[in-house]
Amino acid sequence: MINPLRGMKDLTFEESQRFEHIVNMASTIAKRYGYGYIETPILEETALFKRSVGESSDIVGKEMYQFIDKGDNDVCMRPEGTAGVVRAFISAKLDRQPVKQKFFYYGPMFRYEKPQKGRLREFHQFGCESFGEASVYEDFTMITMISQIFDALGIGYELKINSLGCVECMPPYRQNLVSFLSEINNELCEDCNRRIVTNPIRVLDCKNEKCQFHLVTSPKLLNNLCECCDSDFIELNKLLTKAGIKYTIDTNLVRGLDYYNKTAFEFVSNEIGAQSAIAGGGRYDKLVEFLDGKPTPAIGFALGIERIMELVKMPEIKREGYYMGAMVPEAIPALMTLAARKRLTDKVTVEFSSKGFKSHMKGVDKAYPQYAVLIGEDELKNGTLWVKNLETNEERTIAIDEF
Ligand code: HAM
């Protein structure tokens, strides 16, 4: 027997219904906020992810499903959705149009991580990317939208926010941080020591307790923001408070992808174990330009569908459509014609083997229909159908033409 690859899984039965519900709910809400559906290829040039997610990130450094294809191209299965959407935005020359563009997407992402609970090698994200809006109101609107999605799915969360500054305030802060880290480097883990050189900001979110202890006194970016970043961050705090969206400021929230600036946020759940991030995102105002497009401010987020799968409160299943069955084999062709007609508007389940009344009624709830429709010898002769409304238990015999 051939099994799925490690860290990859099939979505079947109950899980696929949960998946569908999450995607439908998130898409419905995203559309209300003006987002339109976008689909980009799963396979892209490796250079796209190296340049956007960043060579020093774990995603690019260790986790890419990267290979040389038959045409000698260096390609990669997307580890995340933002880079592809930004590439598509530039490819379609939308960066040259004055209109603001908003896209939502969902689909598989691939990261060669060590599989564990909440960490798959193929997982699915639902994400949104908004282009052309620099206002902090957009940051607030996106966070509001995500809260609304989680509320609609019945999922509790904690929201953490931070500001990562901009081209003006980040470089001097980084310098400052490197000086601090270089002085305590003997106390820090191997990963942190590597990151002091490759990406010092990422040292801040090291999970090692000893490192965190020594980082308590590190310089904080929030105390070193330029005027614009500072006033936007204060405004975002005010807007969230006014809207009643609970949050905490996490000065160590730096995100694992290099393209972010200014607002960064994460939604976490304390009900799913160590891999607790259920959604994350932030601004990436320089990425379009960095990938050779016209300078365009942007902000986005993605939520991990598998991570919220077991948290989602499923709506009550309602009886729907028809169960149709025959009690004599000669009635089956008539049943097929009726079913095809009814399926133009309704859900229909047809039982192909003819059987007795009791047998039909025993199996009818598997399909959870609203009506059971049966044809027996008498009905076939008289051109009628026996119909039972399974919600009200009302039974009727009607002419076939009335059905
Ligand atoms: P990310 O934080 O890397 O951000 O991923 C977003 C979410 O995907 C995480 O919060 C988590 O729920 C889920 N996730 C990540 N890795 C795994 C995994 N190995 N197994 C299961 N779930 C996982 C991004 O990907 C950015 N592109 C988000 C974004 C969009 N930023 C701006 N626009």
Question: What features would you describe in this structure?
Answer:
- With 403 residues, the protein is of the alpha+beta class.
- Helices cover 34% and strands 22% of the residues.
- The protein has two domains: 13-169 and 225-311, Bira Bifunctional Protein, Domain 2 (BirA Bifunctional Protein, domain 2, 2-Layer Sandwich), CATH 3.30.930; 322-402, Rossmann fold (3-Layer(aba) Sandwich).
- The strands form three sheets. Strands 1-5-6-11-10-9-7-8 form an eight-stranded mixed β-sheet, with helices on both faces.
- α5 (136-152) runs parallel beside α9.
- The longest helix has 20 residues, at 13-32.
- The two termini are 47 Å apart.
- It binds histidyl-adenosine monophosphate (HAM).
- Histidyl-adenosine monophosphate (HAM) is lined by residues 80-82, 111, 113, 118-120, 123, 125, 127, 129, 256-257, 277-281, 300-304, 306-307.
List the helices and strands and how they pair.
Blueprint: H1 13-32, E1 36-37, E2 43-45, H2 46-52, H3 58-62, E3 65-68, E4 74-77, H4 82-91, E5 101-110, E6 122-131, H5 136-152, E7 158-163, H6 170-184, H7 190-198, H8 209-215, H9 227-242, E8 248-249, E9 261-268, E10 277-283, H10 287-290, E11 298-304, H11 305-309, E12 322-326, H12 332-342, E13 348-350, H13 357-363, E14 371-375, H14 377-382, E15 384-389, E16 395-399
Parallel strand pairs: 1-5, 7-8, 12-13, 12-14
Antiparallel strand pairs: 2-4, 3-4, 5-6, 6-11, 7-9, 9-10, 10-11, 14-15, 15-16
This protein binds histidyl-adenosine monophosphate.
